[in-house]
Design brief:
Elements: E1 13-14, E2 21-22, E3 27-30, E4 33-36, H1 37-95, H2 104-146, H3 154-192
Antiparallel strand pairs: 1-2, 3-4
Helix pairs in contact: 1-2, 1-3, 2-3
Length: 196
């Protein structure tokens, strides 16, 4: 029997993967088995393709995280500006009012108060942007393990969504504002930097 790759040389064995006869130069030990050089080349190509796919998937994840970070900053700025715009008439009235009952200290405090209130509005919207998706994902995981809810009667189908909505709103609000939004933001920032 002659080598598939070198027809002038005698074969020393057959490749267990493809069944081709190969000489000593064309057979190599790979992962405890012996393969011909054609199968080794295919395995190397497969490993390289898998590595490339993993790198592309990782880059896509980093791109999604970077996009979410940019959107979250936009959410904060939009709601901060919204807070300023809503309170601008009050600031104008307070500063330029001729009302003698309006204390002078109130006029000094109202502008920083409006800025802080607008920053709080921006933070609340920003934290909801990060916190609520985490709460909804948790609910989705929880209900995926429960199974089918078809056995509920029609009245429960009306009550259950309302109860779930209020529970989600209550838990999501506290989770988002008191650190959950920041936690989700920091996780996404680590992903965008490629640290995870």
């Amino acid at each position: 029997m002659k080598c598939f790759y070198h027809p002038e040389q005698d074969a020393v064995g057959m490749c267990p993967q493809c069944g081709k006869a190969a000489c000593r130069d064309c057979m190599k030990e790979v992962d405890g088995g012996i393969l011909c050089k054609g199968c080794i080349a295919q395995r190397i190509q497969a490993v390289q393709a898998e590595g490339k796919a993993v790198l592309q998937d990782r880059q896509a994840t980093i791109d999604r995280a970077t996009r979410r970070l940019k959107i979250s900053k936009t959410v904060f700025v939009v709601f901060f500006i919204f807070g300023i715009c809503v309170s601008a008439p009050m600031v104008y009235h307070t500063i330029f009012s001729n009302d003698p009952q309006l204390p002078g200290l109130f006029r000094i405090v109202v502008v920083p108060g409006i800025v802080l209130g607008s920053a709080w509005t921006g933070y609340v919207a920003w934290s909801f942007f990060w916190g609520f998706p985490a709460i909804l994902a948790g609910l989705r995981r929880m209900f995926s393990k429960i199974g089918c809810l078809v056995v509920l009667n029609p009245v429960m189908w009306l009550i259950l969504p309302l109860v779930l909505y209020f529970i989600t709103a209550f838990v999501g609000t506290f989770y988002s504002i008191f650190g959950g939004g920041l936690s989700q933001y920091l996780k996404t920032r680590r992903v965008a930097r490629g640290e995870v």
